[in-house]
Amino acid sequence: MTAEGPRTVRVEGAGFVPIGDPYAAFAAGVDPADEGAAITGVLLAPCEPTVVVGIAQNGPGHASPVQAWLKSPRTVTASGVPARLRRDAGATVAEAEIAVVIGRDTTGLTIETAHEFVWGITAVNDLSSPDRAAFDPRNFESKSGEGYTPLGPWVDTALSIDGDLPMRLSADGEVRAETSSHRLPMTLRECLAYVAGWTTLGPGDVVMMGAPFSQAPVRPGETVEVVIAGMRLTTPTS
Fold first, then answer.
1. Residue extents of the structural domains in the chain
2. Predicted confidence (pLDDT) per residue in 174-212, tens digit
């Protein structure tokens, strides 16, 4: 956010360089062009998804090796924005996850071609109230707290969905979970193909890849930090 309103930028050192529409550039197979000199401002969430999909890693023996659910895009917030944890929904769990940001219409996406539809990767903290799952197996209540999807701080367009991306969850400086994407039961490609096989995603939509080994309880007042491949997403809580 700048004094003149929101701008799309690329990060260069400690500054921000305005760029053109990144999704139009992605569809054309080129890098977005710079649009002026570096500016100052505050980072907002790095995309405005119409659809946010969560992946449930169900593991061996389940009727489906991977399933998906939907989360309201209105729960998306930027790095550094405080989240008030619900007191009426039991314990709160923070989940350090890889978020894949879609670059274009996913019609035709398969396991083999999934990388052609991915604009980039960012970090997401899928805050959850798991005690509500016993009453609401569809995840609406457990996932819909205000500000329960911190996303960012930016999208890394150079990361590969095939790489072994480090994932770490900390609270008040204490590491509570640490893993990497190659420990996910289903690959990022398989998850994307599963989702695209049921619904069409578009530019800016987000698929959260699950956190079977990167989640931990958090308490009000703690500052939660999710680090994905060097991207540091911070969420103070109250």
1. 1-42, 45-236
2. 999 999 999 999 999 999 999 999 999 999 999 999 999
Concatenated DSSP letters for 39-100? B------S---S-EEEEEE--TTSSSSEEEEEE-GGGEE-TT--BPPPSSS--EEEEEEEEE
Helices (H) and strands (E) in the chain, counts: 3, 14
Amino acid letter, residue 118: V
End-to-end CA distance of the chain: 24
What is the homologous superfamily of the domain 45-236 according to CATH? Answer: Fumarylacetoacetase-like, C-terminal domain (3.90.850.10)
- Two tokens, residue 14: 């400690």
Two tokens at 105? 């219409």
**pTM, entire model:** 0.95
Cβ atoms 197, 210 nearer than 8 A: no
Count CB-CB contacts under 10 A for residue 174.
10
Whole-number Å distance between alpha carbons of 67 and 208: 12
Q: Which amino acid is at 19?
A: I
